[in-house]
Amino acid sequence: MHNFDFVKPSSIADAVKALSHEGAQALSGGQTLTPTMKQRLAAPTVLVSLTGIDEMKGVCMGDDGLSIGAATIHATVAKEAAKSYPALAHLAAGIGDPAVRNRGTIGGSLANNDPAACYPAAVLGSGATVVTNRRKIAADDYFQGMFTTALEEGEIITGVTFPVPQKAAYVKFNQPASRFALTAVFVAKFADGVRVAVTGASNNGVFRWSEAEAALSGNFAASAVAGLTVDSTGMIGDLHGTPAYRANLVKVLTKRAVEAAA
Questions:
Q1: How far are the Cα atoms of 42, 137, 220, 227 from residue 35, in angstroms, in the given order?
Q2: CATH number at residue 154
Q3: 180 and 152: one domain?
Q4: From CA 32, how far away is CA 107, in angstroms rounded?
Q5: Could you report the per-residue pLDDT of 190-224, keeping only the tens digit for each?
């Protein structure tokens, strides 16, 4: 690991100022960045920790839905969202292991946008809004491909607001070693329709399965997707599963998620 300076601001304004320096990089839970630095694949000259900013922590219900500070750890989301948004709490409780859940943050996960991460599915599936120090970004505009987001230079996530659906569920097929999603599906039923978000399957990262959304909006039952097929083009293929295997998992897990939600 290379030498670096460490800064721990107590406000969003101070964090933004610190990140304006050349070579500076934001550090949230550090579950991805720290191992990357250890492997010398990243060498920021300044690490700006966001964990000391109290205004970026916490879970609360508001007029627009459930708001979660970006520096909130997974374990807190699992506990404090259990009553207001059980599906989201269930998702957070299944991330990694206890050590990861007590260090990793929702903001860090979304900023990294790993193609097999859990939170992107919840954000996209819920139609959530990603809040930054500059603006509000709709979930459909935020995710732009593998490890790619709409965040601009110097922009940091400060929170996420989730509309709470009538019914929802998250079903994950674990990669047993990492507990990342080999494939996972988040289904959310709202008054105006159903959203289905898939993670762990595509080379382009998290995506919405529009055909299933249309079918489930007309009939929220597992049988509604029985006749659908998922195109394996662009799906991830590795030692854990072929593109066709993951494509089939998308359908299987969507049916299970609908059954769990209903």
A1: 9, 29, 42, 43
A2: 3.30.465.10
A3: no
A4: 12
A5: 999 999 999 999 999 999 999 999 999 999 999 99
